[in-house]
Amino acid sequence: MLKTLSAICFSFIVLLSHGTVVRADQFVLFDTTFTFTKTDADNSKPSPSHYYVKGPMLNAKRPTDWTAPVDYRNGTVHVRLEVLEKPEGGEPTTWSVCYIPNKGQKHGYGCIGTSVYKDAGVYEKDIDMTKFWQNDDIIWSEGIKEMHLVIKDNSGGQGHAHKRADHEKFFPTKIRMTLIQVSKGAKYDPTLAPNLPPEKTSLN
User: Fold this and answer.
1) pLDDT digit string (tens) for 27-53?
2) How many distinct structural domains can be found in the chain?
């Protein structure tokens, strides 16, 4: 009888644990709002045009291991970019969003990109975590230390906005960026993302 009760209790715990994993399909890695000026871009250290998200700006409860028990490494990331203020003129703009790991290999980091945008608004997209630039240069079982956000034009990887002679087309700007990590096999659910409106202006 005691063995039977123990087996039932163990099964119940397993079901609870499984339920917890299912409910842990996604988490917010960061949600930050900031104004970025040309002076900010010129003087950001160690690299110009970078905005650094680290320390308390990152979710303190993010997993150390992104591969288990919940597999976020092989899931997706939902990028929500809310452009609150942007200079007039409709100059195409984008942000590179770089994962900086606790432990890396090869180049030691990898980057996704936001949608290219011309005007204020909300821009959202889902990105496969196994298909972005240098995603294999991160040892995902060791976790993520910080994130680097880099404002650029749409000319490619080296198109840093602060280098442009017409930099006034990019600065000052104010954005809110939110990254939601979604586990393998799950789908992003905006109702589970705290403090975000459910509606979408653009998804691409």
Assistant:
1) 999 999 999 999 999 999 999 999 999
2) 1
Q: What is the DSSP string of 34-99?
A: EEE-HHHHHH-SSSTTEEEE-GGGB-TT--S-SSSSS--TTSEEEEEEEEEE--TT---BEEEEEE
Task: Measure the CA–CA gap between 176 and 189, rounded to whole angstroms.
Answer: 19
Neighbours of 150 (CB within 10 A): 23
Looking at residue 14, its pLDDT comes to: 34
Asked whether residue 161 is domain-assigned, the answer is: yes
Does residue 110 carry a pLDDT above 70? yes
**Lookup result for tokens 């496969």:** 128
User: Is position 123 within any domain?
Assistant: yes
CATH code, domain carrying 73: 2.60.120
The reply to whether 5 falls in a domain is no
What residue numbers bound the domain in which 162 lies? 25-192
